[in-house]
Amino acid sequence: MKIIAVCGMGIGTSVLLKMNIEKVLDLLEVKAEVQAADVTSAKRDGHSADIIMTTPELAFHLENMPGQIVPIEHVFDLTEIRQKLSSVLGK
Question: How far apart are CA 91 and CA 87, in angstroms?
Fold first, then answer.
């Protein structure tokens, strides 16, 4: 499984979100490759992603991507990330 954490520039929010996704995946005992990316890179290189996690403001930029888009309101909120990932993963 591949997950991409996306933000506008690919160096701030996406890296924080990536780290928190990895924490939640560990709690859920799910193995996945998690990458951080900016919107342009995600649109260009992210077609192999199963899940794309980003802020609601950027989600519309990624609408035509084949992976499931999961908007995250608060990238520091592990409970929100866990709830949304669990829902997508069926856990």
Answer: 6
Starting at the earlier edge strand, list the strands of the sheet with 68-71.
33-38, 2-7, 51-54, 68-71
pTM over 0.85: yes
In one-letter notation, the amino acid at residue 62 is L
Q: Which of the following is catalytic: 5, 7, 51, 52?
A: 7
- Give the integer Cα–Cα distance in Å for 65 and 77: 25
87 is an active site residue? no
Instruction: Please give the Cα distance from 55 to 59 (Å, whole number).
Output: 6
Q: How many CB atoms lie within 10 A of CB 1?
A: 12
pLDDT digits (tens, 9 = 90+) for 39-65: 999 988 888 999 999 999 999 989 888
Helix (H) or strand (E) holding 59: helix 56-59
